[in-house]
Sequence to fold (365 residues):
Amino acid sequence: MKGKLSVFSQIGHPLEIREVEVPDPQEGEVLVRVLRANICGSDMHMVTGEAFRAFGGLFYPIVLGHEFVARIEKVGKGVKSDYLGKSISEGDIVSVCYFKGCGRCKVCALGKEFACLQSLASVLREAEKPPYFTGAFAEFYVVRQGQKFFKLDKDVPLNVASAINCALSQVIFGLKEIGIEYGDNVVVQGAGGLGILAVAVAKDMGAKKVIVVDAVDERLELAKYFGADFTIKLDGDFRERIAKVKELTEGGADVVVEVAGTPLAVMEGIKYMRRGGKYLIMGAINPKQKFEADPSVWIGENLTLKGVSLYHPYTILLSQNFIKRNVDKLPFDKIFYEVPFEKINEAIDLAKTKKYPRIQIKVCE
Ligand SMILES: [Zn+2]
Ligand SMILES: [Zn+2]
Fold:
């Protein structure tokens, strides 16, 4: 059997669709067929070269794409169940953790594989060698031995399920980690895919008011559909925005969530908080770009700053629950803009425009 994959080998060049032999899964592996794959912000950081400039560069062609939902095609020797012990067979729909801890370090021993230095590197493989299917912008994906995956219930819509293993679990885990509490006033900076979901999840977790700040009117409108109580347009004087937040929250937000993707947002967002407030950074992955900070303010006002990357694998199940609870209440379909796999390069160009929260690659029915 042959299958198609898209290869990213040079910054500034389009992805190249190739057709290769689909390998049999090795012992402990699972071969899955990708159904829907979304273009996430971090894919764009790779495409634009931002990620390479910061980390010194990758040296081989890879298959991008990590936010996806898939169907089991073939199970390797020794794999009997998912990571909740549910038996699996061909045809089951699964959500796959796109990272894997090394299992041999202190943070892994502490059960925090999301913080392991090897978590992303351990899943990265070269596109030109077997098993080839190592990213989600392809017809298949080979789940590595020890890479956690969970069988999904049949009633979770595929287009929404695609966001489970990155954006949605990221937001749910981040808000859990920062310690959002019932009745909190929350500000979300940035109304892209993560931001829209952060609004809905914060509400679901009992937030009182959710305020969203973004520069694009359409995004702010969409945030309202997902539960935003107030929206603030990112234009003009930042001091006015700070004053508005303080007024709406009667003194400052309990929790501020940065999913704007720029350190500038951090400088402003810090000032949205009340004394003792908590600040969650999840979007500003712009290596070497900095923001100015006055530590004495952090100390004096008892502020908490927390960066969160990846999530505890079990969060995938919390994400599924969230979708099932909200699928009839929230217009999830408005988040995704579907493009067929053959047009992946057009999809990437569309993602650059930031017109839609999530560009979804439809790979297979
Ligand atoms: Zn992602
Ligand atoms: Zn580790």
Q: What stands out?
A: The mean pLDDT is 95. The longest strand covers residues 30-39. Residues 101-102, 105, 107-108, 116, 118 surround zinc ion (ligand 2) (CB under 6 Å).
